[in-house]
Amino acid sequence: MMQPPFENQNRSMLRWWIIGSIAIVFAIVLIVVVNLPPPLPPPTPIRTSGSSTSNPKAPILVEEYGDFQCPACGMFARGTLKQIQDKYVKNGTVKFVFHYFAFIGEESIRASEAAECANEQGKFWEYYDTLYNHQAGENQGAFSADNLANFAQQLELDMNQFNTCLTSDRYRDKVMADIKEGQTRGVTQVPTLFINGQKSVGAISMVQFEAIIAPFLK
Q: How far apart are CA 52 and CA 211, in angstroms?
């Protein structure tokens, strides 16, 4: 039985309406996809160099770029950092990571290498404290080879292992890589902190630090 002409016409119109609707939806999706912002680059990987403290899953990550000859870095290490460690690191709220930004001179680089050698024997933070406690001018011999060895001896490190490590320059590439990474992240002076990615320059006080981390604790 033949369909009435108007029924064929309605079916044809419905078919074209469906095709047209699909085309419009496809065009809208294409426009949205084309105008999406490019994907964000992956975050800069964090090299801990063994020089990290506390719970790796701590909600707050504090990174320091520092130079062992820098007076402001020493002030931060002896002051605010001790308070951070006592109040937030020990209870697992903060993970603290140190990166080398040894730009003042050769003694800064050698001190950083020595800290890595101490880290081989599980004494990074003790050596870190010792270096900052023995600052005496910049490139004036405070971190001479003899003094670096004396610091290691005071910490009762295996001196054969330490001396072999330090004279081998095995960690120079790592120290230089930290410096390059810092430059990539916009570090131009020390100490520079990144607190959950938020940049803070200078030896901040505990009051300033707590103001920065307050939103992350809510």
A: 23
Domains of the chain: 52-217 (3.40.30.10)
Burial of 20 by CB count in 10 Å (0-12 exposed, 13-18 middle, 19+ buried)?
exposed
Q: Determine how many CB atoms are found less than 10 A away from the CB of residue 123.
A: 20
CA 114, chain centre distance (Å): 21
Which residue would you say has higher pLDDT here, 24 or 2? 24
pLDDT tens figures, 94-125: 999 999 999 999 999 999 999 999 999 999 99
- pTM exceeds 0.90, yes or no: no
Cα 152 to the center of its chain, rounded Å: 27
- Residue 38's Cβ-count burial label (10 Å; 0-12, 13-18, 19+) is exposed
